């Protein structure tokens, strides 16, 4: 199997891939994995078959959904999430060896990373301008190799600073010490990972039109079948101002009766349902299923219904 990730070397995404490979007993595959400089490039490589799996960030506990990933997944057909990985995010401020903190007037990093260190930066380098880069590690790589970069420091992972020979000026600079980013392992069509009892499913829902109660009509399908959602985000469809679709993660697997029933109902109610897969939860936390939403409860109600036909 071959793996691509949002690179270059030293991104948090590479750390997520390393953790995924290790937990699957194939840590050595990291050496052969291929970095791509943007999320769309990772997904294109999966679609073209250049790599079998791609790893991209999808959600951060401080900044929320990674729009670049949600939109890029949406813009491509036949991509499915096969696994998720959680990585604790600890940022360092790195610079070329010998750079004094006081001399820094511009800092490069990924926009998601910058948003997570804003407080520390405004206290410790109040004059520093932000320069956006493609990833945290891209900021570190360019700083180490290019004399013309318009910044003197990068916000990145310690691994990126070490990989590119930068000095760590400060560490643990995130405003929220418990920040976590969730990454997903994506592949083309294939076998759905087996149900484990601790799974998540990801969908994108499209409405027929914008009307009062439109989102409620979609959401009540989940509520009525006892399904707990873990993320809900609206994204512009790009068709017209005010036209939105909804990206949703929820507890459960396609093989669970309550999920199957919900999907069938959503197919009736929504203009379009994109199914991005069911996969094991990284934290292995079992789904909360109320007694009225278990597989047995659904089988029992189906049996009752069949009996009505026979007995009446
Ligand atoms: O730039 C990186 O290192 C990434 O892996 C991307 C990314 C993100 O998109 O959220 C991942 C984790 C951090 O929260 C900051 C940046």
Automatic annotation (TrEMBL):
One MF annotation (Gene Ontology) recorded for this entry: prephenate dehydratase activity
NCBIfam families xrefs: PRK11898.1 (NF008865)
Biological processes, Gene Ontology terms: L-phenylalanine biosynthetic process
Alphabetical list of PANTHER family matching this protein: PREPHENATE DEHYDRATASE P PROTEIN, PREPHENATE DEHYDRATASE-RELATED
Protein name, entry field: Prephenate dehydratase
Entry GO terms, CC: cytoplasm
Site entry (Essential for prephenate dehydratase activity), positions: 181
Enzyme class: lyase
Domain Prephenate dehydratase as annotated: residue spans: 2-188
Reactions catalysed: prephenate + H(+) = 3-phenylpyruvate + CO2 + H2O
Pathway recorded for this protein: Amino-acid biosynthesis; L-phenylalanine biosynthesis; phenylpyruvate from prephenate: step 1/1
Enzyme Commission numbers on file: 4.2.1.51
Record keyword Amino-acid biosynthesis present: yes
Organism (species): Yimella lutea
Domain called ACT: residue spans: 203-278
Pfam families, sorted: ACT, PDT
């Amino acid at each position: 199997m071959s793996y691509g990730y949002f690179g270059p070397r030293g991104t948090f995404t590479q750390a997520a891939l390393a953790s995924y490979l290790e937990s699957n007993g194939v840590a050595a595959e990291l050496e052969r994995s291929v970095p791509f400089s943007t999320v769309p490039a990772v997904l294109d490589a999966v679609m073209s078959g250049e790599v079998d799996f791609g790893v991209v960030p999808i959600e951060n506990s401080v900044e929320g959904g990674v729009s670049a990933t949600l939109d890029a997944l949406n813009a491509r057909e036949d991509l499915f999430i096969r696994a998720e990985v959680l990585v604790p995010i600890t940022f360092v401020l790195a610079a070329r060896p010998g750079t004094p903190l006081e001399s820094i007037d511009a800092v490069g990093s990924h926009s998601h990373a910058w948003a997570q260190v804003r407080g520390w930066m405004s206290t410790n380098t109040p004059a520093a301008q932000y320069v956006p880069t493609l990833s945290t590690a891209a900021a570190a790589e360019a700083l180490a190799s290019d004399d013309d970069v318009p910044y003197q420091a990068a916000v990145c992972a310690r691994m990126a600073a070490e990989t590119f020979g930068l000095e760590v000026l400060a560490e643990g600079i995130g405003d929220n010490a418990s920040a976590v980013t969730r990454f997903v392992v994506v592949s083309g069509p294939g076998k759905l990972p087996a149900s484990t009892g601790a799974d998540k499913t990801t969908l994108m829902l499209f409405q027929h039109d914008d009307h009062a109660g439109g989102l409620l009509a979609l959401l009540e399908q989940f509520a009525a079948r006892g399904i707990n959602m873990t993320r809900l985000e609206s994204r512009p469809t790009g068709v017209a101002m005010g036209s939105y679709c909804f990206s949703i993660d929820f507890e459960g697997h396609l093989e669970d009766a309550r999920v199957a029933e919900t999907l069938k109902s959503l197919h009736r109610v929504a203009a379009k349902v994109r199914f991005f897969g069911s996969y094991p939860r990284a934290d292995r936390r079992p789904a909360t299923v109320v007694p009225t939403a278990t597989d047995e409860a659904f089988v029992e109600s189906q049996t009752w219904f069949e009996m009505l036909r026979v007995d009446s």
